[in-house]
């Protein structure tokens, strides 16, 4: 499909090409191969360090601007964890914070031209979501034993038959969680970037009227910036909500 | 989401074939997200990256930021406490000032009262003294008046006796007895 368009010299759109994983050295992609995805994951770490570690180094009592940003992010996640999990969520705070900052950095850095969005890959978001799912389930059973199964038993339903039906539904929805959790993030990232790429392909094809898709792209880009932040927030708040099920049941 | 699902559907058939015919082809022809030969690398480096980030955050960034915010809260609380103490001190000073003022006022009142009483006493004394002097002088005057009156009466008596004796001698020379006339005049005057 892409090859034929290329040959025609018409709209040169390869909206999915930007997601290709390429090894930085060599051709084969093995377990330890450093790829563009690896590079951008570590750029995310550097950016997070620059944002959260460097400005707080001197620790002024009256914060500097960047220190205020770092403290703002900290306070934001802290409040989210405290509000959803209460004091029992404290031990999980560092991991939830890491999750939020990693996803936020990946999403936002992915919006830079020529960059790579690591969170647009289902392999990445899937592992993150599965890690949450597995640890939440393990914490649930560790805390409540087999009683954790009663999470699926809706005792407020009027009849036993209905409860059985709801049990099946709740059970399935519980196991669908990691899927929706990961696909939501990867899908949002991928869709936004693909749309931007499609619009970008219109620009050279339309000549002087290409100003129209450029205007549209500007709007979409702003929207994507919002989506990048909101999806990081959603992934994190859902992690908190799932963890809350395991800690406090219903 | 819709785009992703549509793309996933389109790529899923291609992806299956590509898996058998090796990964590089799959990435080129289908959805890069479904190029399973890249999963191992992605997942491995994701684990490394998240672990590194977790270590940086849990060891450095989070304790530091938490410490900073704690420190600031403490500093603000300290300042507020100090402000409250200063305010309390100011209030104490105000109270002490008011107490001193009231005391001074009371003292002034007392002194004024004392002075007034003293002056009153002096006035009273002077008045009493003057009264006594006046009384003494009055008494003396009255005594002198009484003396003058008495001497006047005596003189009147003597004159009366003399006049009576002259009259008696002139009218009745025989009966002229100086002593008896005098006694009669004295009796008449007394009566």
Automatic annotation (TrEMBL), chain A:
It comes from Oceanicella actignis. CDD domains: ATP-synt_Fo_a_6 (cd00310). SUPFAM superfamilies: F1F0 ATP synthase subunit A. This is ATP synthase subunit a. Belongs to the ATPase A chain family. It comes from the Bacteria. InterPro entries: ATP_synth_F0_asu (IPR000568), ATP_synth_F0_asu_AS (IPR023011), ATP_synth_F0_asu_bact/mt (IPR045083), F0_ATP_A_sf (IPR035908). The gene is atpB. The chain crosses the membrane at residues 29-54, 92-114, 121-142, 148-173, 194-214, 220-243. The keyword Transmembrane applies. Its main location: membrane.
Automatic annotation (TrEMBL), chain B:
Its main location: membrane. Residues 73-129 form a coiled coil. It comes from the Bacteria. GO terms for cellular component: endomembrane system; plasma membrane; proton-transporting ATP synthase complex. The chain crosses the membrane at residues 42-62. It is a single-pass membrane protein. One of its GO terms (molecular function) is proton-transporting ATP synthase activity, rotational mechanism. CDD domains: ATP-synt_Fo_b. Keywords: ATP synthesis, Cell membrane, CF(0), Coiled coil, Hydrogen ion transport, Ion transport, Membrane, Transmembrane, Transmembrane helix, Transport. It is found in: Cell membrane; Endomembrane system. Pfam families: ATP-synt_B. F-type ATPases have 2 components, F(1) - the catalytic core - and F(0) - the membrane proton channel. F(1) has five subunits: alpha(3), beta(3), gamma(1), delta(1), epsilon(1). F(0) has three main subunits: a(1), b(2) and c(10-14). The alpha and beta chains form an alternating ring which encloses part of the gamma chain. F(1) is attached to F(0) by a central stalk formed by the gamma and epsilon chains, while a peripheral stalk is formed by the delta and b chains. Belongs to the ATPase B chain family. Component of the F(0) channel, it forms part of the peripheral stalk, linking F(1) to F(0). The b'-subunit is a diverged and duplicated form of b found in plants and photosynthetic bacteria. This is ATP synthase subunit b. It comes from Oceanicella actignis. The gene is atpF.
